Amino acid sequence: MSSLEAVVAALRRSDARSSVPRFFVHAAVGAGIWVGAVLLITRLVPFERRLQLALLGVPVMLAVAATAWLASRPGPGVLMSVADQSLGLKERLSTAWERRASSGLMDDLQRLDALQHAERARLARAFPMRVNRREVGVLAIVAVAALLLAILPNPMDRLLAQQRADAASQAAAANAVHAVEAKIAANATTVPPDPKVQKILAPPKSRSGRPLTLARRCKRYRPLSSSCCSSPTRRRRHVPARRRTSPIRSARRKPARRRGKP
User: Fold this and answer.
1) 258 in any annotated domain
2) For residue 120, what are the domain limits?
3) What percentage of the chain exceeds 70 in pLDDT?
4) Rounded CA separation 93/78 (Å)
């Protein structure tokens, strides 16, 4: 290696190759849990766009994993220390990085010795790729569960189909009503109101010009209704009935004529 910066760049590439798969597994586990949870909830609650909601979690989890990977990347000092431990360089790289700004004779010799050992060692082995079997097992279980939830029939599909059919029938009925209303409005002719009819239908008003209330109308027309609207049968009840006499009784009551007179 020509400089310590080149060593740091090589160690960063090695660290990225070993850490990216681990964070990718984390993102896959999170996405599988999200998809399974959405498919499970939509079996209890009717939701129309459950597939879009389930797939929305995949880029979100990838973005979260990428952010965590960028935030957890080690610095140059940590890279040098891990490389010393992994490659058995006895802290040559970490010491040379700490004293990189020094310009003494011993400092130059130490940096040269560290660069020589870095050339001989394979820096890619400083960060080996390791697979966590527990995370892979969890990923497999989550993936199988999400696949089963996606394949098995959802009982809410029938309810959603019925809701769509009801909405379509309501829309068709509303369109028919609007069409009839438009046809009636097109065929109807506007007739101006008759002033005489409007005057007759208008409510009566008082002398001050204000409309009469219902109580005032009843009070105003009560004497007229009591005197004029009484039935003739009720009048006859108060008149005493005359006694009817038969012709025989009337003949008896007439005075008898005297005899002897012409």
Assistant:
1) no
2) 4-160
3) 70
4) 10
Cα gap 106→94, rounded to integer Å: 15
- Distance, CA of 34 to CA of 38 (rounded, Å): 6
At residue 261, the pLDDT reads: 45
Greater pLDDT, 40 or 120:
40
Q: Give per-residue pLDDT as tens, 177-224.
A: 888 888 877 766 555 666 776 666 666 666 665 665 656 656 655 554
pLDDT tens by residue, 22-34: 899 999 999 999 9
What would the two tokens of residue 246 be? 């038969």
In a domain, 189, yes or no: no
Q: For the segment 146-182, what is each residue's pLDDT rounded down to a tens digit?
A: 899 888 888 888 888 888 888 888 888 888 888 888 8
Q: Which helix (H) or strand (E) holds 159?
A: helix 156-187
Tokens matching residue 197 = 């009819």
Determine how many CB atoms are found less than 10 A away from the CB of residue 8.
19
Task: Name residues whose C-beta falls within 8 Å of residue 205's C-beta, 6 or more positions apart in sequence.
Answer: 211, 212
Task: Enter the tokens of residue 167.
Answer: 């909405």
Q: How many domains does the chain have?
A: 1
| In contact, 33 and 55? CB cutoff 8 Å | no
| Residue 144 within any structural domain of the chain | yes
Determine the Cα–Cα distance for residues 220 and 239; give it in Å rounded to an integer: 30
Question: Which of 61, 39, 60 lies closest to 50, judged by CA?
Answer: 39
**What sign does the dihedral 139-145-148-154 (CA atoms) show?**
negative
Q: How many residues does the chain have?
A: 262
Cα distances (Å, whole numbers) of residue 11 to 28, 75, 90: 26, 10, 17
